[in-house]
Task: structure prediction
Amino acid sequence: MASTKVTTTDQGSTAIRRSNGLVEDVYEAIFGQLMALKIAPGARITVDNLVKEFNVSQTPIREALGRLEGEGLVVKQHLVGYHAAPQITRRRFDELYELRLLLEPAAAAKAAAAMDDEKLAALREAAGVMARRTDTDERLHYSTFARQDALFHDRIMAFAGNQLIREMLSFQHTHFHIFRLMFHWRVTEEALDEHQALLDAFSAHDPEAAEKAMRVHIEHSRDRLLPAFAET
Result:
């Protein structure tokens, strides 16, 4: 998928360079604002304001918002309109990480046992996009990282061969919600080393190392994001 380019004009509006389909570009632009907390959790999202900001009609805006609603990032209320989804609670956060620790390390071990060159290349591709910086906009980089991180973990679940586990984790939209907790360099930079440890284990076809690397990664991710609750 070609990357979406978003720039800010002198008048403060957001111009979309249409490198994909229009709806896709609008979706990515709004997604980026949600991930980087430019649109705060719980904030009202006004279609007319987005029309002015992106200089597009209401149709792609509404289609993009519908997709975001399906991902749990936007809430639509009858006769009220759209709001950004509220931030996850501490209890929900703990439950999500408990679920991940129960499922993902074992799945990583299975993925390592089934790993081949094609699968490893797909994981390295996602990891490479996360490490790459093609834009000076930190918020855009952060939203791109969130998207690729979700893809990286989803591919591991796919390669593990248990579709039910994959669907269960995907349905929770875990990565999108945890990335909205905090906009901070540690969330991305420290994760890169942990992803590399996973790639090393997969490259070595070492299930035990993959299970350990995934457990460490999830535990560290949890610890990085916990301070977000102390700030609320």
Remarks:
- DSSP finds eleven helices and five strands in the chain.
- Strands lie at 5-8, 14-17, 44-45, 74-77, 81-84.
